[in-house]
């Protein structure tokens, strides 16, 4: 009787299995990814707009419009016979219609990160309570709502910034390492000049001259932050190009593009992948730092750095300091756990053959 053939695991399957075995990093990865995906649905969870309004037989879905970009989610109060002029206050309408045929279903946390003391229900520096879980800030905005929306903005900023840095760094660094010669010398001199510029001061100066926005900050920081990865990829491509499998590919007449993308690049990405989580940590820290210094995203954009600045300026309001510090600490801690797990899972010393 023939014995069943045992199929051997690929190197990537072994890496994933090793990563899952490191519980601290694996569960941190699940938590961060889950919260980040959930953060795109925050308008349905944390919002002052109602999920569903039933008024005089008609149905309205204000909060769902907030999720859809480009759709106006404004509802005038006069549509629902509201006494106060302006935008509909769905929390007040819910109380007003408690004993009528009309009704309102609110999100789990019925406050948004932008409403301030212009709303009569809000006041400045309210301490944490069952109504405002993390209190309110210097303009009466709900701190918990701002913290949650700031998580999405911080993670998105870090992801986009890191991806752009990787695309530029891998492209230029790989080309420098593979082609060498004058192309390599030109970019070496350019990088030497560019790297002599003080990174933070360049970002601050450009942010103070131009009106800062999410994509402008990413563009500015990408201009000055691609150098480190470029040098690293240059060294990796130089090392791989000198190996026998590349010489064999060249002798077989394969094109430069095929050699780069099919042979050298896959064998040069392992160290870069292990660095990715730590690059995210740097991206989040950069945005928090710029917002704290006042050169980051324009108000009233939710930001951990802006909340921390208000808290430091009013140190007696302890919740204004505690909330952003703990949010950033826990987020960065989870990402570092993921980074350590990825680094261990991709460690070449664990496996007998990586290539």
Automatic annotation (TrEMBL):
Keyword Glycoprotein: no
Pfam family membership, one: BPD_transp_1
Record membrane topology: Multi-pass membrane protein
InterPro entries on file: MetI-like, MetI-like_sf
Residues that span the membrane, as ranges: 25-46, 157-179, 215-233, 272-298, 318-339
GO CC annotations, alphabetized: membrane
Subcellular location, principal: membrane
Alphabetized UniProt keyword annotations: Membrane, Transmembrane, Transmembrane helix
Keyword Membrane in record: yes
Biological process terms in GO annotation: microcin transport; transmembrane transport
Chain ranges of the ABC transmembrane type-1 domain: 151-339
Subcellular location: Membrane
PANTHER family registered for this protein in UniProt: INNER MEMBRANE ABC TRANSPORTER PERMEASE PROTEIN YEJE, MEMBRANE COMPONENT OF ABC TRANSPORTER
Protein name: ABC transmembrane type-1 domain-containing protein
Taxonomic path: unclassified sequences, metagenomes, ecological metagenomes
